[in-house]
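Hi F.,

I've been meaning to write this up properly since the lab meeting, where we talked about keeping a consistent format for the predictions we share between groups. The idea is simple: the sequence comes first, exactly as it goes in, then the structure tokens exactly as they come out, then a line or two of notes. No screenshots and no reformatting. I'm using this chain as the first example so we have something concrete to point to.
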Amino acid sequence: MSAGFSAQDVKALGKCTFCPKMCRFSCPVSHATASESLTPWGKMLSANSIREGKLPLDEANAAVMWGCSGCFACQPQCKHGNDVPSALTAARALAAEKGLTHPAAGLKAGAQRSTGHPGGLNCAEIAREALPQVTDRPKAPVLLWPGESGWLNQAQEARLAAGVLIRLETEPFHIPRAAPWTTGKTLYDAGFWDDFRAHAPAVAAAIRPYRKIVCLDPADAWMLSVIYPRFRVRVKPAVLTFAAWVNSLSPHGAAGAAPEVLYHDNCLLGRGLNQHDLPRGLLRGLDGESPREFHLKRERSLCCGAGSLLPSTMPETAAAMAREITRVLRESPAAALVNASPACVAHLRASDPAAATRIMSLVEYLHLRLLGG
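Output, unedited:
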């Protein structure tokens, strides 16, 4: 796959262009900005007009393509099931070829190229200092993949996940101690597809010796399961989300009384991978009761704005989307909000610091319930 629209993208662009905007209400970006040009219809119309040569591919028209968080909230509302995020990411790739990438996305991609992580982290040093016990198991059959967000805060998410898995006496697992450190989602989202095409096979080669790869962030499981095959990159190990693997271990022996939690669906775990029930079953099995729910849940769940580089390219919009989530938390009697994505949790906390202590990743919650802290 080269930069440009696939046959599926072209069909989606054509259908969206002539649609009476039935999915308009579902887009969190257009809702936060109150912009008609940033509805799914408006973005797809712009992309299709660029494809057909009716609009020039210039800075102003390329900017519209960044008004997407990749949440797929519009897809369940579409009679045709159109994949809007994929078509808009292809439009970003065309813009990147002409040097029209958003500056903030370019900086993230540059850090990914130079350090192996879009945040510029020295993951090798973090692995050596923060995770020595679980990086020295090179022959383990399972690879626990921290991903972009799992290396943040001295790999806190990876350290907590390792503690949970050791507590559950799972089969031996290993955490990477050498590059590549990420699936390259930043390169893909930013439209640097030539770089992504070089990165993805390197990841596939690095993970080939393992029987399973368990992803702490659902976004990485989605990349390996959905995007890599589109670029004809074969992933040999079975790809599992952390929720799926822990659920298969039938965790028990939770510590203390269960706090009341509000579960927030992660977009790529739910709409992307259709794993709505796994985290709910996991929480129910641990706590003996189902978590509280948002009014809009499962395929209709609200997006927090953490995806597809939106916090970098449209920070105010991404923060407004996050605060819509934390507003519901503030009005809820639940002690904590739980989301399966460490990236979403980090974004929610940064967008509403006053609510930060009530926001937890699924890994953090499992660690709390199984190890007491």
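Notes:
The chain has three domains: 7-100, 120-247, 259-371.
The mean pLDDT is 92.

If this format works for you, I'll send the rest the same way.

G.
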